[in-house]
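Structure ticket #2291
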Amino acid sequence: MAMKPAVTAHKPAPCALPPGWDGALALMLDQIGTEGFVAALRGVLELSCSFDSMVVSRYPFGAPPVSLFHDLDEVQAAISVQFYASGPYLLDPLYQACRKPVAPGAYRLLDLAAPRFDRSEYFRTFYRKIRLSDEIGILIRQRADSWIVVSLARNARRPRFSAEEVAQVNTVVRTVSVAVLRHWGGATEEEYAAEGTILEDRLEDFAQDILSPREAEIVRLV
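Resolution: structure written out below.
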């Protein structure tokens, strides 16, 4: 009797990076520690997917989130930053994912939420007030018990993020994560040195996994 061939895990092909990624990535890395970093970070992420707002928060263990950046107006910020930090964050699927924890990376909020999200307490008490159609959270582990989350959101009339768009963000998430940690992580000199080594390693992996030899050479020069 013929034996069935062994089943092996299928590794999906990496997403192709859009034109202009190399210049955007180089600018982001060059702007770490400067006022231009946020715009450069946004430039990299907007090549992966379109979004209407970006909020960056630190989630320290046992304490409310700390806002590191947002591009919201005064009214939006009063709800999405101040009110959120007063308690609703405890019900946020992104926050709960950090506490589990899940693996670092980019996730749609709806993929992390329990079924029937629109009937959840978080939706009723908070999420419906901010009028979003969808949200991608880039979960970045800062330390064992502290995370930084970059939230990319679309307004209510926009379509939800597709699986392809989440995959596109995940294509650059390792390099983005290290850049965010260098800019906002508040690391010591020793930790910065270690992160520099990690950045080099991740850029090398990034080059091997996705890029042509010429593109990989550009990344190494960056």
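Closing remark: The mean pLDDT is 83.
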